[in-house]
Amino acid sequence: MMTAATRWIPSLIVAVLAVLAIWAEFPRIAHEGGLWDFGSFVASARAAKEGLNPYGIYELTLHVELPGFESWNPNLNPPISALLFRVFDVADPHMAYRIWRWISIAFYAATVFSWPAASEGCRP
Questions:
Q1: Euclidean distance between CA atoms 94 and 109, whole angstroms
Q2: How far apart are CA 39 and CA 54, in angstroms?
Q3: pTM here?
């Protein structure tokens, strides 16, 4: 029979691993350089709003340049995503990106920290 303390050990391990993943990846997203994929999403929304091809290459579309490699990364999600991302085209794209980033972090944290409570009913 598992005691209350031993039931929390798997949850604690998952929470610690999630925090470590955030810690490792945060510097990659916390830069002030570019918009990454978010720029492609906003560009797609703008194009759809103007009746243009939402899968085209536009000013905000992500452009990747590495030694020996160069590519444009347009939005390749279903067309409905262009409509959904119109919400983020009401402000400066860089400000909207920062808002989106914090919304994403908040949802990730809420998921990680609510998982132990939600999984209690799944245990024998």
A1: 23
A2: 12
A3: 0.71
CB 42 within 8 A of CB 88: yes
Q: pLDDT by residue for the chain (124 residues), tens digit each? A: 567 667 778 778 888 898 898 888 877 766 667 888 999 999 999 999 999 999 999 999 999 899 999 999 999 999 899 999 999 999 999 999 888 888 988 998 888 778 766 666 555 5
C-alpha 109/C-alpha 104 separation (Å) is 9
| 9: amino acid identity, one letter | I
Which one, of 8, 15, 1, 7, lies nearest residue 111 by Cα? Answer: 15
Burial 82-116 (b: 16+ CB within 10 A, else e): beebeebbeeebeebbeebeeeeeeeeeeebeeee
